[in-house]
TrEMBL record, chain A:
Any one GO BP annotation for this protein: transmembrane transport
Protein family: Belongs to the binding-protein-dependent transport system permease family.
Protein name: Sugar ABC transporter permease
PROSITE patterns hit by this protein: ABC_TM1
GO CC annotation: plasma membrane
Automatic annotation (TrEMBL), chain B:
Organism in which the protein naturally occurs: Neotabrizicola shimadae
Subcellular location per the Swiss-Prot or TrEMBL entry: Cell membrane
Regions that span the bilayer: 15-36, 112-132, 144-165, 177-195, 224-245, 277-298
Record-annotated ABC transmembrane type-1 domain positions: 108-298
Keywords for the protein's UniProt record, in alphabetical order: Cell membrane, Membrane, Transmembrane, Transmembrane helix, Transport
Bilayer topology: Multi-pass membrane protein
Family the entry assigns: Belongs to the binding-protein-dependent transport system permease family.
Any Gene Ontology CC annotation: plasma membrane
Matching CDD domains: TM_PBP2
Name under which the protein is recorded: Carbohydrate ABC transporter permease
Length: 315, 313
């Protein structure tokens, strides 16, 4: 390599000095660039979280700022964990989580698998399919209440047209057995595209030569699908499930608009119950303890899941 | 890739795939088309059964969305001058008089201010942090990156109460600035992670050349890295904007009048006798339209952004 005078000059200048002369040192720049983000996260996320933990040990009520605040120890936690109604909301949440994930995985993977065939116009269709997940869940959820109206809504009309069950004979949002399914349908409609996109990224990451080798070995298409396609997409699929799981565990906007927790308490998901305790009954201390329990649950489940995910990845 | 690959799907399977995906697309777009078309129906048309697919379009929903009206008294009806324009005509036909503008315009503007404000701030701070994480030896880099990501796992309601109390203390509750800071705090984790991925892909040699030419680090960042990262910054910005535009939980819990955005407001639009679905649909259409247009225009970048995140994490 030819040694130019500039190169020699650059080497002659002490590194430290050259940086110092030309302005802030790299280390200082790194601090100046990172600090605002960290400070903001501490102020908006961490400080409130620590505050929540502190409140969870008290009987504080945010609508009575002047009342005396008593330290109640673990009593809030004890009350929540022994309350049978809480377990009912947990069950409703689990039902919602399991079914949305089942439907979204089947539909999302199926669509990605079809789109990966690279037929004409698949780019346009992908974009159109993705639209629902880009929209506001609250606004869309509100409009779905209109689609679900038994007398005038499009949904019941479509069901009648397809199956012959009279449209006015059932109300999706007003009946105890159907309401949970009504929110599962809307969530699946909104978020299947997300699972589809992640699966598509997984499918596109599989190199062609693997299939070519399999063809040479005369492996059947079915065998190729189960021994190559599925295992290679699985880490991506599990990642999509992780994201959807976390999001759906804290799902609020869509369900508030669709059912608000009713009829009865059939669709009372944990986040809606939490909102009622915190901002309707104003039991701030109690709801803080509830929030912490939920946070720990999500964090715990997510960590276990991520461990499993890493195992699948390493395989 | 060879010209004739043995793994290339057959023509028939492409056809079948195209038809199935097309069918799904039609079904999935029906609710959206229904929102848009309901916005152009009259009140009776919107609630007729069976649902009306063909109807004569009307701007009644849009007029109702932007105005507050009241039923005209018999006196008013008798003395009412003939309608001067199409807005008056629509209102008078329903025996109503306009008593003022509605609050939709304000709410929409709040969404614009808070959405763009927080997007700008997230991108500004996020780009700086992402650059530092990408290029410098930051102490505890991996731990900090994970910490930044973990803030996204927090359910909004878990921190809503202290934020509510904190904002009340600081005089930030129900203000634009408060909501901008809040949404920036939520978005910044995504911004840092996405942007770091984009900046990692820019070769370091470009900056090193600039440094040798006598640029300071900061000048090299501004004049060399930023232009290279422009596409990545733009697609990250769209994600931040979509989140802030659509957010509901914080908006409904922490704002009441002054700084409330459109998502909590649209469901509360009601007409004279019950829910005015054409007006709700009109409000929803105007609110959803920017995101739909963004998505279609910038589809390549958006889709890349999402899958990128999946691959990196």
């Amino acid at each position: 390599m030819p040694d130019t005078p500039m190169d020699r000059l650059a080497r002659a200048t002490p590194q430290q000095l050259s940086r110092r002369v030309r302005g802030l040192s790299d280390r200082a720049i790194a601090w100046v660039f990172v600090a605002p983000t960290i400070l903001l996260l501490l102020a908006i996320n961490i400080f409130p979280l620590i505050w929540t933990i502190r409140l969870s040990f008290t009987n504080y009520a945010a609508n009575k700022p002047n009342a005396e605040v008593k330290w109640v120890g673990l009593r809030n936690y004890q009350r929540i964990l022994t309350d049978p109604d809480i377990w009912a909301t947990m069950q409703a949440t689990a039902h919602f989580l399991i079914w949305t994930i089942v439907f979204q995985v089947i539909l999302g993977f199926g669509l990605a698998w079809l789109i990966n065939r690279k037929f004409k116009g698949n780019d346009l269709l992908t974009t159109l399919i993705v639209l629902p997940m880009m929209l506001s869940p609250a606004v869309v959820g509100n409009f779905w209440t209109f689609l679900y109206e038994p007398q005038i809504g499009l949904f019941n009309y479509a069901v009648e047209a397809l199956t012959g069950i009279p449209a006015s004979s059932f109300t999706m949002l007003g009946s105890v057995p159907l309401a949970p399914w009504a929110i599962v349908i809307v969530d699946t409609w909104m978020w299947t595209p997300f699972v589809m996109l992640i699966c598509l990224a997984g499918l596109r990451s599989i190199p062609d030569y693997i299939y070519e080798a399999a063809e040479v070995d005369r492996a059947s298409k079915w065998r190729q699908f189960w021994t190559m396609t599925v295992p290679m997409v699985l880490p991506f699929l599990m990642l999509a499930v992780l994201f959807r799981g976390i999001e759906n565990f804290k799902m609020f906007d869509l369900v508030v608009q669709l059912t608000g927790g009713g009829p009865g308490d059939t669709t009372l998901l944990t986040s809606i119950e939490l909102k009622r305790e915190a901002f309707e009954k104003w039991r701030t201390g109690y709801s803080s303890a509830y929030a912490i329990i939920l946070f720990v649950t999500v964090f715990g489940l997510a960590s276990i899941y991520v461990k499993a995910l890493n195992k699948v990845k390493d395989r | 890739m060879s010209a004739v690959s043995i793994t290339e799907p057959t023509r028939r399977s492409k056809w079948v795939a195209g038809i199935l995906v097309g069918l799904y697309t039609v079904i999935t777009l029906l609710p959206l088309l229904w929102i848009i078309s309901t916005g152009f129906k009259t009140g009776p048309d919107s609630i007729s059964y069976p649902p009306k697919i063909l109807f004569s379009p009307s701007l009644e929903g849009y007029v109702n969305l932007f105005t507050t009206r009241t039923r005209a008294t018999a006196e008013q009806l008798a003395t009412m001058p003939p309608p001067e324009n199409w807005v008056d005509e629509i209102v008078q036909r329903r025996d109503e008089v306009i008593i003022g503008p509605s609050r939709y315009g304000e709410r929409f503007m709040n969404s614009v201010i808070i959405g763009f404000g927080s997007t700008f701030l997230s991108i500004f701070l996020g780009t700086l942090a992402a650059y530092a994480f990408s290029r410098f030896r930051v102490p505890l880099k991996d731990d900090l990156m994970f910490f930044i990501l973990s803030t996204r796992m927090m359910p909004p309601i878990a921190v809503a109460i202290p934020i509510f109390l904190m904002f009340r203390q600081l005089g930030l509750s129900d203000t634009h600035l408060g909501m901008i800071l809040l949404y920036t705090g939520v978005n910044i984790s995504l911004a840092v992670w996405l942007l770091k991925g984009f900046i990692d892909e820019i070769p370091r040699e470009y900056e090193e050349a600039a440094l040798i030419d006598g640029y300071t680090r900061f000048q090299a960042f501004r004049k060399v890295v930023l232009p290279q990262a422009a596409t990545g910054i733009a697609s990250t910005a769209i994600f931040c904007l979509i989140f802030a535009w659509n957010e509901y939980a914080f908006a409904v819990l922490l704002t009441s009048g002054n700084a409330q955005t459109a998502p909590p407001f649209i469901p509360t639009i009601i007409g004279v006798g019950g829910k005015d679905w054409p007006a709700v649909a009109a409000g929803a259409t105007l609110f959803l339209l920017p995101v739909m247009i963004f998505t279609i225009l910038l589809r390549k970048h958006l889709l890349r952004g999402i899958t990128f995140g999946a691959v990196r994490k």
